[in-house]
Structure formats: structure tokens, C-alpha cells
Write a structure and sequence with these properties.
Number of helices: 9
Strand order of the largest sheet: 2-1-3-11-4
Structural class: alpha/beta
Order of helices and strands: HEHEHEEEHEHEHEHEEEHHE
Number of domains: 2
CATH architecture of the largest domain: 3-Layer(aba) Sandwich
Shape: globular
CATH superfamily of the largest domain: Periplasmic binding protein-like II
Number of strands: 12
Oligomer: single chain
CATH topology of the largest domain: D-Maltodextrin-Binding Protein, domain 2
Length: 293
């Protein structure tokens, strides 16, 4: 009888240990060789940081990359369908994402709101003209390229700006060079990498006179059924924010591009984000101020 009880104890212990170490969190991985292949590095590292910070309380975990794809829409569908265990995706806030109850989000802006500071690639023929842009009204003369389905399109249109949506991200740069689109506005944290990435496009240039500013929190989203994953990641993010490791990672990835963007030397044009009207404002406590960095 003792042997049976001991054997049962060992089996239960083993199963418990396996359950702990087999807690899997899936994350997005891009197509190898794509121009956006490094884009997700920060988000993946932040997710790992959060899970590490929460490890003493919640135990071990395994991070597993989902099959590579370039589509945010495909990743959203995978999260809704719970295709991969505890799939976490990063995306700008939209109320409609959680309307069906299939998805939930962690109310901590994962990039500190930096993508709401937008600097613009510009057609070379209008670069001098852009120095005269001092207001939103002035900016309405120009067309702005965006990817299909990007949350920024709705924000820009709500502020009276003319948006042209393009399905292929790389094509937008070429359309700006050709003058088919006047501007392509990117996060200040993205400018330096994209200037380097597309340096082979000899006529590609960017405006240095203004920055668009609007509140654009991006969150980690996951299936609403994955409550333990949400709890663990949220706890880890809060710890990382309090002990400074969140900001340290943020600066590691973004500070160089912020210095390159010279935000303090630009005119600031403020836009409203109507998508945030029902979002509780407590997310703002996690915003970073790039103008003071």
C-alpha cells in the first residue's frame, strides 16, 4: 500500500511539475527576410520580460513562436479562434476588437505611446513646402499613405485628412517617391530603421519640420478565455514598469530613433483620436514622454 501511495504521489508531483513547465505563451513571428522582420523584436522581448518578472509568483513558462505571417488581421483571427496556446498579439486600441467578447487586452501601453508621435516620409518635390505647415488645416492639402486596415487611417480621416490606403507596406514608400502619395507618416521610433532599410530608394526623403501627435496606445491582446496568461503578463508588466526594466528595454530599442527624429526641434500638430472616447484614461500613467528623454 505504501508503494502504491508513494507511486501516486510521484505521479501527481510529476504531472504538476509538467503542467507548470508546459505553460505555453505564443507570440507573433514575421516572415524571414521581410523588411518588417525586426519590427516584432521589441514586443517579443517585452513579453519575455513580463513573463520573467512574473515567474517567481506564477512559475515556469515556454514561449513559442506562432507560424510566421505578415498579417495583423490573420493574427487577430488566430487569437479569436484560439488557434495557438495563449497567443499574444500587439495592436493599437480599437473598441470594436473586444465587442464580441472573444478578445481581451492588458491595459498597459506596451510601447509607452511612442507610435503616437508621427514623422513623415515625403515626396522630394514638396519638402520645402512642408516647412510652411503650421497647423492641421495646412496639412489637409496633402495626401497621406497608410496600410489597409491600419488604425491610423480612421484617426487621420476623423481629423479631416486625406488618406490613401495601400495593401503592400513597401509600395507606400515607392508611391511617395513617385508623387502618387505626398506623405507616409511613421512612429518616431520607426523612422531611423526605415531610413536605413530603404536607403536603396535614392529619392526617398522625410520631412524634418513637424511631428503629428495623438494618443495611440497599443496593447497586448489575447483570447478572453486565456485568463491566467493575461493575469501573469499583466503582473509582470506592472513589476517591470515599477522597477525600471520596462523603460530600460524601451530606451534600448527606441532612443536612437528618437534622437534621430529630433522631436524637440519640430512643430507639433495635435490630432484627436476618436477611438479612445470610451477607453478609461488610466492607461496614460504608463506613457513615456519622448520630449523629456
Amino acid at each position: 500500500m505504501r508503494k502504491i501511495l508513494f507511486g501516486a504521489f510521484i505521479l501527481i508531483t510529476s504531472l504538476c511539475s509538467q503542467a507548470t513547465t508546459d505553460f505555453v505563451v505564443s507570440y507573433r513571428t514575421p516572415v524571414v527576410g521581410a523588411t518588417t522582420s525586426n519590427y516584432h523584436d521589441y514586443y517579443t522581448e517585452l513579453l519575455r520580460l513580463a513573463l520573467e518578472k512574473a515567474r517567481p509568483q506564477y512559475g515556469d513558462y515556454t514561449m513559442r513562436g506562432a507560424p510566421p505571417n505578415l498579417s495583423t488581421l490573420r493574427s487577430l483571427a488566430d487569437a479569436v479562434e484560439n488557434t495557438y496556446p495563449n497567443l499574444v498579439i500587439e495592436i493599437g486600441y480599437e473598441e470594436k476588437l473586444t465587442e464580441t467578447g472573444a478578445l481581451t487586452y492588458i491595459n498597459i501601453p506596451i510601447d509607452g505611446g511612442i507610435v503616437g508621435y508621427r514623422v513623415c516620409f515625403a515626396n522630394a518635390a514638396i519638402k520645402e513646402q512642408l516647412k510652411q505647415v503650421n497647423s492641421l488645416k495646412d496639412l489637409r492639402r496633402y495626401s497621406i499613405g497608410q496600410g489597409v486596415g491600419w488604425v491610423d487611417s480612421e484617426i487621420l480621416r476623423a481629423n479631416g485628412l486625406r488618406v490613401i490606403e495601400v495593401s503592400n507596406y513597401e509600395s507606400i514608400f515607392k508611391m511617395v517617391i513617385a508623387g502618387r502619395i505626398n506623405l507616409f507618416c511613421r512612429g518616431a521610433n520607426q523612422l531611423q530603421a526605415e531610413v536605413e532599410e530603404f536607403k536603396s530608394l535614392k529619392k526617398l526623403t522625410y520631412d524634418e519640420s513637424f511631428v503629428l501627435v495623438y494618443s495611440l496606445p497599443r496593447f497586448f491582446y489575447l483570447n478572453a478565455k486565456n485568463t491566467l496568461a493575461k493575469e501573469r503578463i499583466q503582473a509582470g508588466l506592472q513589476i517591470a514598469f515599477k522597477d525600471g526594466s520596462f523603460k530600460e528595454l524601451w530606451k534600448k530599442h527606441y532612443q536612437s530613433s528618437l534622437d534621430f527624429s529630433k522631436l524637440n526641434q519640430r512643430k507639433h500638430i495635435y490630432l484627436e483620436n476618436p477611438l479612445l472616447k470610451n477607453l478609461p484614461p488610466d492607461y496614460k500613467q504608463y506613457f513615456m514622454d519622448p520630449l523629456s528623454e
